[in-house]
Amino acid sequence: LLVTWRVAVLSLHVLHRLFFPFFLKDLLFLLKVLRYGAQLELSGVTRTVRTVLQRFIQQAQRVPDKPFIIYDGRVHTYRDVDARSNKLAHVFRDSVGLRRGACVALLMSNEPDFVCAWLGLSKAGCSVAFLNINIRTKGLLHCFHCCGASTIVIGADMVECLEPILSSLLEDDIQVWVMKAHSDHPQVHTLLDKLESASDQPVPAALHATSSLRAPTLYIFTSGTTGLPKAAVITHLQSLKAAAGFWAFGAKSDDVVYIPLPLYHSAASLIGVGGTIHLGATCVLKKKFSASQFWQDCRTHNVTIFQYIGELCRYLCNQPQVNMEKVHKVRMGVGNGLRQDVWREFLSRFGNIKMCEVYGSTEGNLCFMNHIGKIGAVGRSNFFYRLLFKYDLVKFDMVMDDLVKDQRGFCQHVETGHTGLLLSKVSSTSPFFGYVGSKHLTERKILRNVLVKGDAYFNTGDLMVEDHQGFIYFRDRVGDTFRWKGENVATTEVSEALGLVDFIQEVNVYGVEVPDHEGRAGMAAITLRPGFTFDGRKLFHHAVRELPAYARPLFIRLQEEMEITSTFKQQKFQLVQSGFNPSTISDPLYVVDNDQRSYVPLTADKYSTIICGNHKL
Ligand SMILES: *[C@@H]1O[C@H](CO)[C@@H](O)[C@H](O)[C@H]1NC(C)=O
After folding, report:
1. Within this chain, do residues 490 and 473 fall inside the same structural domain, yes or no?
2. Residue 155's domain spans which residues?
């Protein structure tokens, strides 16, 4: 007996050492998430899958008069949105002629009709591809081709984006429908006039019934590591998991969620709107984030949870201090990219708000959640978590821009507390659904024979650290993407676009850090074609035409010769390190000037105004 006791005490001690002081919190959180995951999987096995759409329909029956979306001061109840999406589903079937299984592209900014169109299309049995509203002509056409959509639904305020691409769309036999009652163009069809006479009764449930968790329901475009945006396949499984995010962090049906992020990203649509539906809660939707309106909005609508990206919290901290700023009911923020210094300041300014960082890419098969609220950490791992999710941090050489391998060609784990590249094992329990269209694109994100022969890992492209307590911290991105203004910028996409300018011979795009800014500012090192000179105005106009605002390089560095690494990749590391300081860089530097609509020489004076934050980037 004594021995048994000793063993028990000893193992308790070991457990305590392992998990202290977060043991209970970790356990409860994990049990909650696991139970939900098990229920999901079970529904897949028993073919009783209840999708986010079906959950919405159920909520509309349960709490029809509850506000679902508050937008611009107007309340849209669950009943309202259910009825309007029914009407839209009828119009999509009867007037547009859409059938179950079709894919439809949606180009809309944040408004309640984004949600109504999304739900309406889902009710009609269609999958929906959310298009980034910042996207330019070339990228937009590409998006159609890769998700196979033959119909596009456009918001009323997006019609002017249509002009430059309309003829190409029509050439490709793409049907164009706008959320308007009248259209000046004979081939642009209208939806709203047909809505009035449409029935608000449900379409047959068989149209949207599914028995498979792994059936695609959405396509969300992500700026991948190569070339133009890629359509990530979102299955019911992923959207159901994302919809449980708020709930996992402890949200309830009486919470009010503030959504200032764009709905075409997975954070606002899957976690935000999906999460609101899952809870049967209310969301306050904003067309655009406004730092000056934020707290007033929160007070007016009794907001309790808000979604953020790191930049957003920084903008809030940059607002002048006022007396009322701790007077609100916000108790939780859910988002990504909050840096330690901003996090601390945010809490001291605006009170005790639990900030829940979520790490995970739209298409990735791994997700970390910092449910403890530990400042600076993007996620939390522990003994249990590692049993369930097979991820590894492996050694990566920043200078060579490559994995560090041993003699046998395998990757090497980093030690606890050291930075490594985050890889996530691809298996049947954490599948990677990949991108549509090209197997090649999917395969590029997968690394094989990483630690043993025959294994496969999803390459997140993120450098991370895990500390001794199991907290996970983001360090940097490797390779070909960086983040700016909450969007991923694919350096190859920018390089391809700039490479079309006549005076440019070679382009190397990378991101540089700017004090007091999240992410990295785009910079392009270029070499000139023999006999040509640099023309800042021409480059500016080209960039505006071809690239979304967040992807346009802010700085240009003129080089005599492009450096490459010993493995024949463009040398980025040293360029990134040397930044954009004209007093330490001998190459000519230019900075974008939106007033002069040109790239102008970056002088020491300009540089210091940027560093002091007096020059808006
Ligand atoms: C917000 O809460 C206060 C106090 O609980 C209440 O009086 C007010 O009506 C609420 N406002 C809204 C928009 O629900």
Report:
1. no
2. 51-356
The pLDDT tens digits of the residues spanning 492-532 come to 788 888 988 999 988 999 999 999 888 899 999 999 988 89
Instruction: Indicate the number of domains in the chain.
Output: 3
From ligand 1's centre to the CA of 302, what distance in Å? 6
CB of 210 shorter than 6 A to ligand 1: no
Comparing CA positions, the residue from 232, 265, 229, 269 lying closest to residue 135 is 229
* Ligand 1 centroid distance, CA of 133 (Å): 34
Q: Whose CA is nearest to atom 4 of ligand 1?
A: 302
Q: pTM of the prediction?
A: 0.85
Nearest to 482 by CA among 457, 459, 508, 461: 461
Question: Based on the domain organization, do 401 and 419 belong to the same domain?
Answer: yes
What is the tens place of the pLDDT at every residue in 259-270? 999 999 999 999
3-state SS string over 206-253? HHCCCCCCCCEEEEEEECCCCCCCEEEEEEHHHHHHHHCHHHHCCCCC
CA 472 vs CA 14, 186, 322: distances in Å: 22, 55, 34
Do 399 and 462 fall into the same domain? yes
Please tell me the residue having the least CA distance from ligand 1 atom 6: 302
Residue 8 phi/psi, 5-degree rounding, is -60, -45
Q: Tell whether 462 and 497 lie within a shared domain.
A: no
Whichever domain contains 408, its CATH number is 2.30.38.10
